[in-house]
Structure formats: C-alpha cells, structure tokens
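Question thread 4412

I'm putting together a teaching handout and wanted feedback from people who do this every day. The idea is simple: show students a protein as raw sequence, then show them the structure tokens that encode its fold, then repeat with a second protein so they can compare. Below is the first pair exactly as I plan to print it.
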Amino acid sequence: MMTKRKTVISLIVNLLIFIITVVVFISYFFVEPNILIKNGWESLKYFTTDSNILTAIASLIVAVFDIRILQKKADTLPKAVVLFKFIGTSCVTMTFGATILFLMPFYGTMVIGDTLFIVHVSTPLMALLSFILLETVCHIRIREMLLALLPMYGYGMLYFIMVRVIGEANGGWKDFYAYNRGGNYGLSWLLMGTGCMAAAILPCVLHNVVLKISHKKAEKTTSAALPNDSHE
C-alpha cells in the first residue's frame, strides 16, 4: 500500500511532469525552440520529445490512480502502471544521460538552454526520483526490466534507417545526434547501446532497493506494535 503522504506527493509530481511536458510541446508550435527544432511536429523525430511524451502519459496515468487511492477506491498502483512509468522513466534517464555525457561535449550548453533544460534535465530527474522514491509498490524483475529497452532500441533502429540507410539527401534525417562524427558510427552505437542498458538498470535497481528498505521498515514497525508474548 502507498501511504497518504507518498500518494499526495506522487500526485503533485506526476501532474507537474504531465502539465510541464504538454506546455513545452505546445510551445514548439509558437516559437522556434532551438537551432535543431524548427516547428512542433518536427520535434517528434527527436528521442527527447518522444521520451518526454511517453513519460508524461505514464505520469498522468499514475496521477489518476493516485487520486483513486486518495478516494479509497484503490489500495495501490497496479503493476502494469508501475511498469509503464518505469519504461518512460528509463527513456528519459537515457535522454538525461546522453545529454550530459554525449551531446553537451558536442553542442555545448545550448542543449540545456531554455526549454531544453526542462526536457533534458528537470522532467527526467523528476520522473526518476518519483519512480525510485514514491512509486515503490512492487518489485521489478529482470525480464520486466528488458521492456524498457524496446522503445530505446526501437528508436535506435529508426534513427539508423533514416540517417544511414536512407540518408538526408534522399529525404531521411540529418545526423542531428552526431553519431557519425569522425566516422566513428560503430563506436557511437556501442556506447548508446550500453547507455540504454544502464538507463534501464539504474531506475530498476534503485527502485527495488528502496522497496526492500521500505518493506524492512514496515516489518519493524509491525513487530514493535505487536504485544509482548512473554509469560511469567
């Protein structure tokens, strides 16, 4: 079960993630957000936008169930909802990691300027922290952890096809993530593939650790509340 305090905080954080993401995405249709994104629909070809939208949808669903819990119509979050939030969280964790470790050395601080700070840093961290600290209601198994790799590797395959197979000259995409800079395409993909694994493992492990600690605390509290069975 989720405590009332955790549920209220979860509701606030997840609603914020959803609202902020929607506002940022809508803003793409009215202003030119940066040198890479020229209009709203074009932003959907970027993993940053896709991962944030996925997480926003998952966060909205979590918020709906938080309300149900507060209304005593449910005791906890369903496992499917937690897994959905986990998948979204892993994707934005990848976004955050790739921004800090890969994009910033190439593009500089522009990748964390203005609204990009929100989608590259703040909402990913909000999603990660809420999943680790607040939505700890069930254990994530290894085979369930692999679900988080599907959207990340799926996007990677699409990017490869659009950039390498089709190519910008034939209507594909520009290599805006600079994976082929210096001709090191293979190395870049190896690093990104490893990064995807790390982005799935990190939230999963931390979530499970906090869940285990919470269970131990609950057991101690229950034991302390039980009457002493000693006999004279």
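The second pair follows. I'd like the answer to focus on this one:
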Amino acid sequence: MPTDDILNHFDWEEEAAADQKLDELLEQAFTPDVETVRIQRYAFSWQAELAKVILRNQQIPSFITNSLTSNILQLEWTKVDLYVRAEDAEQALAILETNNSSEETFPE
C-alpha cells in the first residue's frame, strides 16, 4: 500500500475546528482574577513548549513566559517559566512527572 496519500484521508477541517474550540476554552481560563502559579522552569523554550502541549492534551490550561527572550538571546540564564492556574497545579505536576518518568525507561 503506498504511503504517499496517507494524509488525504485525514479530516483537516474537523481537526482545525477542535483546535479552535480548545484555544477558545484555554483563553477563557485565564482572566485577571484567576490565580496562577509557576510550576516549572526550563532552560530552553522547546522544553516548556513540549510541557505545554502535554498539559493541553490533558485539558489543563497553561502559558509560558520568557520564550521569546530565550529564543533570541540563547543564554543559559534566560529561563522559560510554565504557569498554570493554582487549582490545576497539583494535577499538572503529576502529569508532567508521569511523562518524565515514562521517558526515562527504554523499551526492550
């Protein structure tokens, strides 16, 4: 079976609509009266982006700071912070910890 047409059967419109709906929900999650906490600090922006994607897949809203500065300056002291709502912090840390521990084991 040829694999060059594998993406022809993917419903791009449905996927885009789902992403847009999730983006709207995440934007509504952070209002000025919502308390946020920093749960992780990363040396590189790609690490924070990956953690954000993991949390997004679990429907936990999050945002990162200092990403642009980190990408421009590329300095060790430029840290990227990951923030979540205070009420989601414990669950978010557990999800990230589970993900980190599963990456350390290699399949046989």
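Top answer:
Good format. For the second protein you could add a caption like this: The first strand starts at residue 36 and ends at 42. The radius of gyration is 17 Å.
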